[in-house]
UniProtKB/TrEMBL annotation:
Keyword RNA-binding: no
Domain Peptidase A1 span(s) in chain numbering: 1-345
Assigned keywords, A-Z: Aspartyl protease, Hydrolase, Protease, Repeat, Signal
GO biological process terms on file: proteolysis
Listed GO MF terms: aspartic-type endopeptidase activity
SUPFAM superfamilies per the UniProt record, alphabetical: Acid proteases (SSF50630)
Organism encoding this protein: Panicum virgatum (Blackwell switchgrass)
Key word Repeat present: yes
Domain of life (superkingdom): Eukaryota
Catalytic residues as annotated in Swiss-Prot or TrEMBL: 15, 218
InterPro entries named in the record: Aspartic_peptidase_A1, Aspartic_peptidase_AS, PEPTIDASE_A1, Peptidase_aspartic_dom_sf, TAXi_C, TAXi_N
Name this polypeptide is given: Aspartic proteinase Asp1
Family the entry assigns: Belongs to the peptidase A1 family.
Length: 361
């Protein structure tokens, strides 16, 4: 995204599992990763005061409390993520240059975090991104702010291609309302996550016999995570169905992997050996999401096929079941906060469909 005046480019991690957008920031920086672009530099005039309504909603979303000692105090924040990463910083306002689908450019002034103390990933390697693009449903999220400014509808969608790349859009012009599968958004017990509610789990057409699991969609997670019970049921079913040509093998990339007679080059080499997984959502008049093998397997650099669904209970996610990027590939996923629904449809994500006036990134 292009931020500031003059606009400068930044790479952001697209995260539907959190609300706050933030950049690593020279305020000055106490702890920043090496990032692809020069650190964002704020000015005093850009600081959002603590008494601002957006500061109140940010604080209430993070801690449930909001207190200002003086009207001139700045809006500080501290945000922690499920993977133990964190950012401490201050809320600022600056312009975002965005091209609408009708080719006009808008430059709204939006609030985001200037993060001057980060603990994310490895500090020695260059991080792939300069910060996080928060697309949750809270009023501090960039999506909510664009909607409040009247620039787009409160709708966001992403389409991640199996071949790499993809597209992201704000607004509802690209949404195939009549063709997508829809389910009402459930109020997740887990923060402002987008949740289609509880799902029953099927593998190869048979129920795995686990109680319905609460599912959330989180583009900030690369992998999909199931709680211990559905995870074990899936692993047992997978192993019982495997052909004799596949042998379980140890691979440093992921916990459960198989090798074939010769190394696999891509998931397409191995998909016919595995069956589809299906989530059936009670909320959406039997809304089904099919997860074919290419949406739960990952081929590693060693040529092995590994399960891209991990045991979330082992990493402290308790009963939270997260659908991450591996499962969302070649599906257009739409978060429609206007109508309170989540939709998905299989799509070739390396091609942008025809559109009207959404903001397209």
């Amino acid at each position: 995204m292009n931020i500031g005046n003059p606009p400068r480019p930044y790479f952001l991690d697209v995260d539907t599992g959190s609300d706050l957008t933030w950049l690593q920031c020279d305020a000055p920086c106490i702890s920043c990763n090496k990032v692809p672009h020069p650190l964002y530099r704020p000015t005093k005039s850009k600081l959002v005061p603590c008494v601002d309504q957006l500061c109140a909603s940010l604080h209430c979303g993070l801690t449930g409390r909001h207190k200002c000692d003086s009207p001139h105090q700045q809006c500080d924040y501290e945000i922690r993520y499920a993977d133990q990463g964190s950012s401490i910083g201050v809320l600022v306002n600056d312009s975002f240059a965005m091209r609408l689908a009708n080719s006009s450019v808008v430059r709204p002034s939006l609030a985001f975090g200037c993060g001057y103390d980060q603990h994310v990933g490895s500090s020695s390697e260059v991080a792939p991104t300069d910060g996080v693009l928060g697309l949750g449903s809270g009023s501090i999220s960039l999506l909510s702010q664009l909607s409040q400014h009247g620039i787009t509808k409160n709708v966001v969608g992403h389409c991640l291609s199996l071949r790499g790349g993809g597209f992201l859009f704000f607004g509802d012009d690209l949404v195939p309302y009549s063709r997508a599968t829809w389910t009402p958004m459930a109020r997740s017990a887990f923060r402002n996550y987008y949740s289609p509610g509880s799902a029953s789990l099927y593998f190869g057409g048979r129920s795995l016999g686990v109680r319905p699991m609460e599912v959330v969609f989180d583009s900030g997670s690369s992998f999909t995570y199931f709680a211990a019970q559905p995870y074990q049921a899936l692993v047992t079913a997978l192993k019982s169905e495997l052909s004799k040509t596949l042998k379980e093998v140890s691979d440093p990339s992921l916990p459960l992997c198989w090798k074939g007679k010769k190394p696999f080059k891509s998931v397409l080499d191995v998909k016919k050996e595995f069956k589809s997984l299906v989530l059936s959502f009670a909320n959406g008049k039997k809304a089904l999401m099919e997860i074919p093998p290419e949406n739960y397997l990952i081929v590693t650099k060693y040529g092995n096929a590994c399960l891209g669904i991990l045991n979330g209970s082992e990493v402290g996610l308790k009963d939270l079941n997260i659908l991450g990027d591996v499962t969302m590939q070649d599906q257009m996923v739409i978060y429609d906060n206007e109508r309170g629904q989540i939709g998905w449809i299989r799509a070739p994500c390396d091609r942008i469909p025809k559109f009207g006036s959404s903001a397209l990134l």
